[in-house]
Design a protein that fits this description.
Length: 266
């Protein structure tokens, strides 16, 4: 028996609406790319401060820890930390219009972690948590669907078919568009960094999260497929590959700019 494509999509949408996966940002490759790119643009002060917190890790390695620890049974990871991965900005609004909800969000969490990193009385464990969350959040805010519109959990409930795989738009942007390149994170980083000149890095080095959020919201509103056909194939990859690459590179450059500001000598 043949099932019409539109009927299949309705059935899958209903199933996923009851069991939509949690919103993660860039997959492992994307997060590691942003961390690795940032290493190229850290100030000496930021490098020293980060080295004082870490042992033998780098920013790429710690970039995925907040997603890994979501499986922890601890209350902090089960409840408190979940909202730190995203913000909600309805279409036609900006973050200043809506602000953070009572439970917090990525922007408010990043503000708190900046205070911890600057606090001379913070323990190493507190600074370590702040450091790896900051790396992760900055990557998150450059994935357009981590600035959700408030209607579909950042695209998690927007069902699509990526080539022959039934999935959702959020997952396509988290992993499928990045992994479609079949590059390791070190290869991806090398390709991105060698295309960045001083003028581009200077233009992108804005440490203000509200700037990144506004950019992601603007991009977000252009990436939903139009019409009833939600089959995403080569044409969708062609249309959005350069945006993915730019957001990964910008995420790394802004990460360095943010740490440079946080750890600047006063």
């Amino acid at each position: 028996m043949m099932i019409r494509y539109s009927t299949l999509m309705v059935l899958v949408s209903l199933l996923l609406s009851y069991a939509a996966p949690p919103a993660h940002a860039w997959g492992k490759t994307g997060h590691r790319v942003t961390g690795a790119v940032a290493e190229f643009y850290l100030s000496d002060e930021a490098k020293a401060a980060i080295a004082d917190i870490l042992t033998d890790e780098d920013l790429a390695e710690i970039s995925t820890w907040p997603d890994f620890y979501r499986s922890s049974p601890e209350e902090f990871w089960r409840r408190t930390a979940g909202p730190f991965h995203y913000v909600t900005v309805p279409e036609g609004k900006n973050y200043s219009d809506v602000g953070a909800p009572p439970q917090g969000d990525a922007v408010s969490a990043l503000e708190g972690f900046a205070k911890t990193l600057k606090d001379p009385d913070a323990t190493r464990e507190e600074r370590l948590l702040a450091l790896f969350f900051a790396v992760h959040i900055i990557g998150d805010l450059h994935q357009p669907l981590h600035v959700g519109n408030g209607t579909d959990r950042g695209g998690n409930q927007f069902t699509v078919v990526w080539f022959d795989k039934v999935t959702n738009l959020h997952s396509v942007w988290d992993t499928d568009l990045v992994d479609h390149e079949q590059l390791s994170f070190t290869e991806y980083t090398t390709w991105l960094v060698r295309k960045l000149n001083d003028d581009v890095v200077e233009a992108w080095s804005d440490p203000d999260p509200l700037v990144w959020v506004a950019e992601s919201a603007e991009i977000r509103d252009t990436i939903y497929p139009e019409g009833a056909d939600r089959r995403l194939r080569w044409d969708y990859f062609y249309a959005h590959r350069d945006t993915v690459r730019q957001r990964l590179a910008q995420g790394g450059v802004r990460m360095a700019a943010w740490f440079n500001e946080v750890f600047a000598e006063e």
